[in-house]
Design goal:
78 residues; mainly alpha; 1 helix; coiled coil
Length: 78
């Protein structure tokens, strides 16, 4: 009977240790998920900023092309 009590106590300790370890792993997992979400958000914001910059560049190119066309037309008229 005493042996069974010892085994039961050992198993209880093992269970508690495993439970503590599991809780640590869950906490670390949660932290990593938050970091990952932050990285995704930053990446998405970066893409949005890049798209805005690209659109600005395209607009400037269009304006430059229009100016060049006007200059070419003036030269042809002369």
């Amino acid at each position: 009977m005493e042996r069974l009590d010892e085994e039961k106590e050992d198993r209880k300790k093992q269970f508690e240790e495993l439970e503590k370890e599991f809780n640590k792993i869950e906490k670390k997992n949660t932290e990593l998920e938050r970091k990952l979400e932050k990285i995704y958000a930053e990446q998405k914001a970066g893409y949005s900023a890049s798209n805005v910059k690209w659109k600005e560049i395209e607009k400037k190119i269009e304006e430059s092309e229009k100016k060049m066309e006007k200059k070419v037309e003036k030269v042809r008229e002369e």
